Amino acid sequence: MSEVSETIPVILALLLGFTVAMYVVLDGFDLGIGILFPFFSREEERDQIMNSVAPFWDGNETWLVLGGVSLWAGFPKAFAVILPAVYMPVMFLLLALIFRGVAFEFRWVAKPHHRKWDVSFAVGSIVAAFAQGLILGAMLQEIRISGNQFAGGPLDWLTPFSLMCGVAVVVGYALLGATWLMMKTVDGVEQRSRQLALPLLAALMAFIAIVSVWTPLQIGRIAERWFSMPNIFFLSQIPVATLLVAWLCYYSIRKGRPILPFATSVGLFLLAYLGLVASNAPYIVPPSMTIWEAASHPSSQVFYLIGASILMPMILVYTVLVFWLFRGKVKPGEGYH
Amino acid sequence: METLAGVDTTLLARVQFAFTIAFHIIFPSFTIGLSAFIATLELRWFYSGKQHFHTLARFWTKIFAVSFAMGVVSGIVMEYQIGTNWSRFAEIIGNTLGPLFSYEVLTAFFLEASFLGIMLFGWNRFPPWLHTLASVIVAFGTMLSGFWILSANSWMHTPAGFAIENGITYPVDWSDIIFNPSFPYRFTHMMIATYLTTSLVVLAAGARYMVQGRFEAEARTMVHMGLGMLAILAPLQAVVGDFHGLNTLEHQPAKIAAIEAHWDGSEPAALVLFAWPDKEAERNHAEIAIPNLGSLIITHDWNGRFKGLRDFKREDRPPVAPVFFMFRLMVGLGLLMMAIGFTGVFLWWRGRLHRATWFLRPLSHAWPVGFMALLAGWMVTEIGRQSWIAYGVLRTADAVSPVTFGSVLISLALFVLVYCVVFSIGIWYISRLIGKGPQQIPADPEALPNRPLSAAQETTREAST
């Protein structure tokens, strides 16, 4: 029994990690196109951009909902500590998601007076991405707890580091958005996205470098993990791979390839994510709560796991099905409205 | 605990939850019913081939899309609010309720969200059978979502299948947790409420077109389907409500006492038609009541006794006045729905319906009736649960997060501002869409040949070259 109760939290944590990764990749490109919206001013171009994600955005955002509930179901103690700690950024995130989410439908219904929904889509996407960076930054730094409860102040999340993480996430999502548009659109939009992708890639690499230096400098525990023997041999593969993938991304954008720029941008995100996990596992609230300490009752874990192991493959099947049914480039003027 | 003018963090967090959920509940309750309506229309189109079913399905799909988007974004707020404002609840109850919410996402949300894309964007892209199937799946998904939410909510009223260790609940029997004692009644009652709510919106829109003499075939379909649903479901809802009442009497007697404003349990209860309950004096002012009828309704026995408010400690009594008044509002609106349904079906049967402007004209303004009844009912059940957040297990005051008064106040102000602006505009857009009415959009013959899937492939291939 004790072995089982050791193992299941690990499986649940992997599942949660997978959910978060799915969210970051899928809603990442979809927030990204919102961030890039101001760079496209013609109405047909904006329509084309919206239509390239319109059938998917709701499914993408559902991974955020699943992330929230599986954190709650699997690790209620962590859920109860993290959310009060990042209270304000979560509010920004939720309010921003409202503005951008309704814009998908409202701007069509409001036409020809849809300018305000274009603005709300762009600003909402930027704020949502920034807020996610704030939450990430706040979680990497220490969350003050006592007796399993959040014990910090309402502005603990507000640090130079978390602000920098916020900007980094905005830039990263914008790259995902630009490479998604290279893949899914035609003509002017496609070319403009290609021009935007290169500076965004450069900026993202700069931010990855800053985070990689700043994090070990301010958090000794992480420095120790990365730079001690023999960890350094294994972990150094992550930055090496990142550089390789970044080069491939650069090359494929220059060549104007349709799919590879998006695939490699996703690769960059996954590698950065792997780096974060490698720095912080097995903590779920670093550095004070491990996945075992935060885990729910074994019976809850087993019940959740049974459901997830049956349903997750089904979800992946129909997620793939929808992306496949709507594969190919979006033609100008396509949509249901 | 910080307070401002007698308001503490707990009350503020409750106001925030009540405000956000009241706005949220409008959209899913409308879209559960509407998705079933659209799926029915599409099935009728699929089997009969009649154009006006297609026109209607496409028309209501637009409205569905707008309300669904509002439901999604306001729903994400509810989930995260459990952590931000109610973290003690999240921790203490998380073992039992967390998995139910995760099952909702795993079984329902992904299903809805994935097939919604096909439903909205697949009209000219996919064959009718695939589109109809997607609509049916979306309708099923919304209902499934209701299943889990109502299960979790019912558990908070009638907790079962759990034990407590170190102050934290943990699950003992999952089927007892999911199918807790009030769940079957609450789920049935809520589902019927969503269908009634949607029926009234459809009916009101149809009545409006009928009076204006626009979209004849479509208006007839809307009015007939709406009236039929009302005539069948409104009385059925009363029966289900009665069963739900008996269940509440068994498990939450204090709520029943508050609903009836019944103070003295040693006496048979009168049916209080109107009163001004006074919780300090423990009696009703200005009471208009019918003796013994309350006992008959609640216990199904003329002289039946049930507990009065004075039988409960003061801290276990829910706020009486809102529960009492909201219950009467709900029942009154339910009776109105029954009256509309019966009158309409009678006129229809006599062949006088489309000329009965005295009936249709007011009916075209009746769309909010279902929403009002639904919100009133929701308040009865939720306020009636106080001062418990999980009945008999955890008090609301012990469930709140260790966050500052200011954080909750600022976020509440932001929610009020944003919700009032964004969702009012959304509701206005919906009313404008209804005002414009269904435009005939013929199914594009180019995109729907004999082998539609191959055609879809050709168009995408064309586009990608």
Could you characterize the architecture of this molecule?
The complex is a heterodimer of chains A (337) and B (465). Chain A is an all-alpha fold and 337 residues long. Chain A contains 14 helices and 4 strands. In chain A, strand 3 and strand 4 form a beta hairpin. In chain A, helix 8 packs across helix 9 (220-227). Chain A is globular and about 55 Å long. The model of chain A has no long low-confidence stretch (mean pLDDT 89). Chain B has helices spanning 9-48, 51-84, 87-121, 128-157, 174-178, 183-212, 216-251, 253-259, 293-299, 320-349, 357-363, 368-383, 405-436, 452-464, and strands at residues 3-4, 7-8, 162-165, 168-171, 271-278, 283-290, 388-390, 394-395. Chain B is globular, with a radius of gyration of 24 Å. In chain B, a hairpin with a 2-residue loop joins strand 3 and strand 4. The model of chain B is unreliable at 445-465 (pLDDT under 50). In chain B, the strands form 4 sheets. In chain B, strands 1-2 form a two-stranded antiparallel sheet. The N and C termini of chain B lie far apart (66 Å). At the A-B interface, helix 3, helix 4, helix 5, strand 2 and helix 14 of A face helix 2, helix 3, strand 4, helix 13 and helix 14 of B.
